Amino acid sequence: MFRIFTNGRTSNCEGTCRREFLQIGTCGIGGVTLSGLLAARADAAGSPVVRDKAVVVLNLQGGPTHIETFDPKMTAPQEYRAMFGEVQTSLPGVTFGSHFEQLAKLADRMAVVRSFRHGNGSHASAAQLVMAGGNPTGANMGSVYSRIAGLTNPRTGIPNCTVVVPGATGDAYKKLGGSPSRVTNVGTLPQTYKPFDPSAGSDILENMELRLDERRLDDRRSLLGGLNRLRRDAEQSAVLDGLDRFQTQAFDVITGGIRDAFDLSKEDPALVARYDTSAFKIPKWLQKKKSNVPAQSPVALGKQMLLARRLVEGGCGFVTVTSNGWDMHGNAFGIDDGMPLLGGAVDKAVSAFLEDVEQRGLSEKILLVVTGEFGRTPRINKKGGRDHWGNLCTLALAGGGLEMGQVVGKSNRTASVPATDPVTTQHLLGTVMGTLFDLGELRLQSGVPTEIARALNAATPIPGLV
Which of 174, 198, 266, 385 could form a disulfide with 334 if both were Cys (CB 3.0 to 4.6 A apart)? Predict the structure, then answer.
């Protein structure tokens, strides 16, 4: 807990007057401090169980079409094949949907799964199933990760599990949809392990208070200014000189940490422009199609992916990025008007991410997973859209030290069902957790919930990736 109060005489319900008061890192339980917890976590970090790797999941909410993304099936009858055609990738004989031109050039860094199936066609339950990797607790994989690895990174104090919705990139994007509840379910785990959502506040933020003159709390700028002044004053007065490294780290978490990770002004403007998806604006005529269409704009997606990379560099082990609008029945978006916008934004943002992490030498450390709750019906409907389909789903991966440059499995003639052994949610769980943990060592650890231990013991990675 971090609190700074002014020297005003404001009484609380117990009649206590709050004068100048500074409490840094106190957790309020048995006198345990943040610095003490960081020290304990650092000792635990010597364990070989937790790998120095991270996972970023791009969740295309609503059910992305598997055909117009990574399995165009141009040999199928016209009513089944990709509406906008295909583009040749850097892999001989492999094509992507035509809106993925930049990703097609990077296909050698990707693994596309064309036989991913779970059979669930209901939005909420399918979304939770995929994000949980089918584990019996029902908790999303990020929460499972933080249950084992800890809530925060022991070195930086960054939350180990974070969800980045459009609103996390700035106030200008607060009205854009994100539906975080579908991808942050903790199942039977305590709510403590719910992913950190910086756009909606959380226990982490609620436990850090900086109380200044009310007139100076008009916006976040005042808060950040107060933190900056606190840090500067402490350095000038040599307060930090007498602290051990864990106390100093606790101070750094409070005065920096998450704030710095979300500060895009620290990035090269040219790189920010490379990620920028603001050009993918929804035309006015399309905004009038249905009232919820404006909230599904992908204009923030590039910034979301850039924030994901910054969070990983700051020590976050699991980041979920949400992109809304993929429920392309033809009621709001159809395939006809949705793919040029949403597909184009994903192409730019994800290709920028892959190139960025490659240039930073992080490709082996970061596993990117692109998926959604289910796929779309093989046959195009009368509205120019496709409906819910759980018999084939979108799944692509990149990096993480896995075997890239391949297509795993294949679909049948009409992209309706797997033509090879299906890849399941349990395979996804095994791949993700096998990236984040040494599962052999993890099996020897005590304290892992029984349901999680059993699920991880039974999970195997996607064939051919390890």
Answer: 385
